[in-house]
Amino acid sequence: MTAIHARSRPARTGSAPSHIWDATPLTKVVLALALVVSAFPIYYMFIMATRTNDDASEVPPPLLPGGRLGENIERLLNTEDAHFLLGLTNSAIISITVTVSVVLISTLAGFAFAKLRFKGGKILLGLILLTMMVPLQQMGVVPLYQLMVDLGWTGQIKAVILPFLVNGFGVFMMTQYAQQAVPDELVEAARVDGASTMRIYANVILPALRPGMAVLALLVFMQTWNEFMWPLIVLTPDNPVVQTSIAALNQAHGTDYVMLFTGTAASVLPLFIVFVAFGRQIVGGLMEGAVKA
Fold it and tell me: What domain range includes position 127?
């Protein structure tokens, strides 16, 4: 009787009905429409970067690439007021430096808060959480600018790098990720084997945190690349970042829509490259975090 009952019971593995995971035709249509609506402005931006200003005023608008991309890029790079190539270079240096610093410090702090026991750890983590609740950049812009003046850093890209080298959200994210991804028993076993704290961090913690690190790196890179207010305040027009270069284009070529589309497309392209290069790790990290949650 028990054997018969056991044979009639569905297996646990793969027992969920397959139709639960099958998308209905309506779902596919809605997702396709959402994709078109979301991607069309970006697609149109790149299309207009290959066109002329006369094409920008056509009704209906052109939906196929033109042959003026090289000319438009040349005009963009030769615009003296914008210093666009310098803005791209500065943004790349700032974004890469800030991203590496935030990921490194966040993983170190996350490991310490999640797996090490020390006095005041919870209080320090609470203070970090408080920094996420207060808009420090907006509230502290005046004293921060005064600090940069006292240091003599105004007009230099290190004034944009320094305030963003540590990120409270990154520390909190890596703390939560380390608590879920790394069992305490694994850390204790490594310590019993004689591994030092830094050895545990390098050989045990970092491999487990790679998916979360990829997600954090993308978020920080995008946020730093798109930063506008603080660079506008602390940098000069002769030493811009890419976002302030686009603002200069808007002031110098307010009716030259193709120039604005070309500059915006050039500023978005590095983000596409980052996502394509690390997309698999980023999506894997998001999915792993969702499953663990």
Answer: 77-292
* Tokens standing for residue 254: 């307010």
Task: Decide if 286 contacts 219 (C-beta within 8 A).
Answer: no
pLDDT of residue 11 exceeding 80, the answer is no
Q: Domain count of the chain? A: 1
Q: What is the CATH number of the domain that holds 180?
A: 1.10.3720.10
Residue 67 lies in a domain: no
Output the six-digit token pair for 121: 């750890």
Locus of tokens 């969920």: 16
CA distance linking residue 224 with residue 221, whole number of Å: 5
CB-CB contact of 176 with 215 (8 Å): no
Q: How far apart are CA 233 and CA 230, in angstroms?
A: 5
Query: Do residues 228 and 102 make contact, with C-beta atoms less than 8 angstroms apart?
Result: no
Contact assessment for residue 225 and residue 271, using Cβ atoms and an 8 Å cutoff? yes
CB 100 within 8 A of CB 85: no
Burial class of 289 by CB neighbour count within 10 A (0 to 12, 13 to 18, 19+): middle
pTM for this model (two decimals) = 0.82
Question: Cβ(221)–Cβ(94) under 8 Å?
Answer: no
Interval 280-289: pLDDT, tens: 766 665 555 5
Residues in the chain: 293
* Dist. CA 17–CA 33, nearest whole Å: 28
Query: Could you tell me if residue 1 is inside a domain?
Result: no
The more confidently predicted of residues 25 and 286 is: 25
Structure tokens at 45: 């931006």
Predicted confidence (pLDDT) per residue in 58-103, tens digit: 888 888 888 888 888 988 888 878 889 999 999 999 999 999 999 9
The answer to whether the beta carbons of residues 292 and 182 sit under 8 Å apart is no
